Amino acid sequence: MPPGALRLHPDFRSRYLSTPRGLAVYVPPGYGEPGRRYPVFYLQDGQNLFDPATAFGGRDWRAGATADLLGCRGEIEPVILAGIFHTGVRRVSEYTPTRDPRLRKGGKADRYAQMLAREVKPFMDHEYRTLKAAKHTAVGGSSLGALASLTAGLLYPRVFGGMALVSPSVWWHNRSILALVRGYRAVARGRIWLDIGTAEGESPQRIVEDVRALRDALEERGWRRGADLEYREIEGAGHSEADWGARFGDVLRFLFPPTHQ
Fold it and tell me: Is 115 exposed, middle or buried (0-12, 13-18, 19+ CB in 10 A)?
């Protein structure tokens, strides 16, 4: 079977955010088989997923190749990957839940979540052969992109039934993401992958402790490790596209296990 294909939508516009952005959409091998529909994984920092020419530092996640391999082996349900490009200087503000007065930026993650839930997902459901229900829909990202993904998952639990929080930047604005988690009151509990490398940044132990605090906050709100929360500390892993790409397969296995339609 030929490998999956990548389709580009270079000028996606939103009424919630001012800057147009690109979408890169991977469709799995066999896409288009009559009557078949697919789950969708919405991923932030789309530049870094598929192409070393656009990836930060020239190292992409090889997300499509990983999804190809695992799908063909039957280790995951074949999945559509929708990479939403960041917008350069506006990335920090769009990906963070609160405004940091010291840095004078941040706080637009709620608008970004509106764009994902109310514009990007409807676009994908119209243009692609998707499974629309929340249980077939996940959102994910790394670093600040993980904060944006968690915000979207908490604000729209009926849209996103899974979240991948890869090396989340819990430190942002005095760990303000923890208050967002502690304020969660919805009944729904989407499946969450949460991880951190043990060699990230200049103070790796503090960073690990930050992510453990996020893990604990999620457990306080009803998520359960071994059931709907997968938590991992990856020994020796740093804060880089290469490190995140190396464990992307494990993320896919957790969020999109094989099923029979």
Answer: buried
